[in-house]
Design goal:
Blueprint: H1 3-8, H2 10-22, H3 25-32, H4 36-50, E1 55-57, E2 62-64, H5 66-87, H6 91-94, E3 98-104, H7 106-113, H8 117-123, E4 127-133, E5 147-151, E6 160-167, E7 169-173, H9 175-181, E8 195-196, E9 206-211, E10 214-219, H10 229-237, E11 242-246, H11 247-256, E12 260-261, E13 267-269, E14 274-280, H12 288-302
Parallel strand pairs: 3-4, 3-5, 8-11
Antiparallel strand pairs: 1-2, 5-14, 6-14, 7-11, 7-12, 9-10, 9-13
Helix pairs in contact: 2-3, 2-4, 2-5, 3-4
């Protein structure tokens, strides 16, 4: 087996050790901050790469095959050697360096995180950044991600994290549009307006509001829908209708008077509302590159009025 092949399987070898020591895929997944299916796929890739069965699986327990016992010993030694290398002087932990792979929702990445990244890269010249903008769930192990920025009430089981800031969502329009078509005073009035919405699923056209603890749902319609926040922002600025937007994207236009809030006494509810967390798998000591990245984001976003 070539060096490249060995290197490609090192993550799977680490997962294999965790599965053996945890006793099950589900327990290993909780420890790694992943899912049982992702752990299972990692073991399958390792078995395929090595060309041998490593585990005997039954409905009740997990056991090592004969070759699995030998492979486990070597993989455990490999992890021990890696930990010893890191502990030689603590340099790799104490000096921020290397690549950080970050998964972040598209709009948050573009409007909130990206504007601060030039300063971060200038401050830490030995760190490279790979930012993947995607609104879909990305598994930290399967997706080879170091940190996931996600909107959630609290870290999912098996993950650790730091709360960064709260994301609000609102409904807005231009003064020109409202002058021509009228200003809604109740969510039900939106049915008589052209609304600009996400448009990825049928439920995206059902807008949900809450006031004084009472929920109201409205099925909106309009001639324009787009699954990109920047496009919806531009569309509403061109007077095409009333749009739902995260506050951080509409902030400047609202301050300049180019946009005004619609139904300001109502709270707009969507899955894109909540707290933004920086999530990562539990580990004994957070690498310096991740530690300084999270601290940098926390400091910058705490001062960001968005």
């Amino acid at each position: 087996m070539s060096t490249n092949q060995v290197t490609a399987l090192m993550d799977e070898m680490a997962v294999f050790v965790c599965v053996v020591e945890a006793g099950s895929f589900s327990a290993a997944a909780r420890h790694l901050g992943s899912t049982p299916s992702a752990v299972s796929r990692a073991i399958a890739r390792l078995e395929k790469g090595l060309g041998t069965r490593l585990l005997h699986r039954t409905t009740r327990k997990l056991g090592l095959s004969e070759s699995g016992t030998q492979v486990y010993g070597h993989c455990r030694d490999m992890l021990g050697s890696a930990q010893a290398a890191l502990a030689v002087s603590g340099q790799l932990h104490d000096t921020p360096q290397g690549q950080i792979r970050v998964s972040v929702p598209k709009a948050v990445g573009r409007f909130v995180v990206h504007p601060h990244m030039p300063d971060f890269l200038a401050q830490y010249p030995h760190i490279d950044l790979l930012m993947r903008l995607d609104d879909r769930y990305v598994d930290l192990i399967d997706g080879q991600i170091d940190i996931a920025l996600r909107i959630t009430d609290q870290p999912p089981p098996g993950l650790m994290g730091k709360r960064l800031f709260d994301i609000r969502h609102l409904v807005c329009a231009t003064p020109e549009y409202l002058a021509r078509h009228g200003t809604p005073s109740h969510p039900g009035d939106l049915t008589r307006h052209s609304c600009i919405y996400l448009g990825e699923e049928p439920g995206d056209a059902r807008w949900k509001f809450r006031r004084d603890g009472k929920p109201v749902s409205v099925d909106v319609q309009g001639r324009y829908a787009a699954n990109h926040t920047g496009v919806r922002l531009d569309a509403v600025l061109r007077h095409l209708g009333i749009a739902s937007l995260p506050y951080f994207t509409a902030k400047e236009a609202l301050q300049q008077g180019a946009l005004v809030r619609v139904l300001p006494d109502w709270t707009f509810q969507t899955q894109y509302c909540g707290a933004l967390w920086a999530l990562y798998p539990p580990m004994r000591r957070l690498p310096a590159k991740l530690r300084v990245f999270i601290a940098f984001l926390a400091e910058r976003l705490a001062d960001d009025p968005r």
